[in-house]
Amino acid sequence: MKSFSFFSVLLCCFILNAQQPNTEIFLFDASYDSSELKLLNPKNISNNEGYDNQPSFFNDNAILFSSTRNGQTDIVEYRDNYGSKTWLCFTEGGEYTPLKIPNSKNVSAVRLDKDGKQRLYAYNLRTADNSELIKDLVVAYYTWFNEDIIVSAVIEDENLNLYTTNLKEGWNRKYQSNVGRSFHKIPNSNLVSFISKENEDNWQIKSLNPLTGETKVIANTMPGVEDICWLINGTIISGKDSKLYKLKPKYDVEWIEIADLSPNSISKITRIASNAISSKILIAAEITSNTSESNNQSSSDSNSNSGSTSNSDSTSDAGAIVQSHIGPYNAGDLNGFSNAFAENVVVSRYPNEKMYEGRQTLKQKYTPHFKNNKNLSVRVNNRIVLNDYVIDEELTTMNNGNGRQATIYTTGKEGIKTMTFVSNTNVTSNPEIIVNKQLEAYNRRDIDAFMKTYTNDVKLFNYPNDLTTEGQSAMRKSYLSWFDYAKDLRAVIQKRIVIGNKVIDQEQVTANGRTINAIAIYEVENGLISKVTFIQ
Question: What is the domain extent for residue 225?
Fold first, then answer.
């Protein structure tokens, strides 16, 4: 294990935490007219007061970035096809530079723990399990060459130095001193680009063969600029202040301005990323005005004028009521924990299998639980709130073992009225696939494609167990009438929790100019939706 100086620890914390600006993430469609890049349809996808940075594409529809709220930096997943944003909260530490691990559904990120420890970790998005990828190096920035090899900037004394790590063979090799933060796989090659700062007055983009350590100069950066992105055609794009520039090695002799993004409130570009086919571009940038606040206000105003069924006061109170039992639970405070519940609270297994009733009974049930389990804790990974309902995706720890579950709460002035546990069952396929297909068909108002996503004996319920529709015939008739009635029909997923074979969506539906907010719990069997339970 290498040792690190006190200065290194300070530098480590400074790189990730110091002077976090008010940045936002913008998504653009990329168009190529006579080989010239044009950025169209700008969209602020972070829309969050404070720090949002280091975006990357998980795939063409899913985007990852780091975002800070309430002093905590976590990974956010944005789904472009649904316009939804979900905080993926794995640990008490801060997660930075989230990237998809090649040939995997998992994600890596640089984690800065509260004790100052900084390492590169891998995260399982479904189970929230995590593990150190490189134990002996303090990684600040990185990219994946393939599923086994990582190229990174490592903090050593006062410098960032370039290392290649082979996870499969277990070795680390230092290839360059004094590098920048921008690392990218070069399209159509077996090379990675990095920024060399060996000459302080003339930074250079260089290529690296991670297997041999061979480096070559590609081009000079613009003065003082180290963030670049490669397009699939071999063009490099980079940003300075509000302007975007391009350079194609061996063709262009200097950087050429291609866009001024100041009309989008962009004042200083800090990161750029492209999807695999360069049809979409992500830009992280400081902004000239409080864009996120104004966007949030506009959204709120539009909801208030649209006939939305959401109750903002109730939503805020419900989340606070549920949150009030988590702190005492984690502190081992049995009285504080039980007092967060109503006197006649009902505890059940989903959908309505009653386990017991009453605060005193709950206290008796949890007494041995608190006594016999060490390191007892629960962390909310994702939360859906609608009126008096709260659904939490929870990561639990008992006796150093980790678990994952969803819990449905109903609330009132007297506290938590019901608590219903949704277990995490084993599945052989991803239930999101069929739920996404039905959503796409719903938005097209394609009744045939929509019904093909359901089983013949599908059942629809109002929560918890009020049967409203049974069978394909009755459901088709009901939805065909709805599709004919609502000509502007569109559903957008605001938040999603996936637990076992269940997909829990917070949905906002527009129909004939009216906005309807609801929660849908989809249950998938053998690749089709067999049951839907609605909460409104």
Answer: 6-299
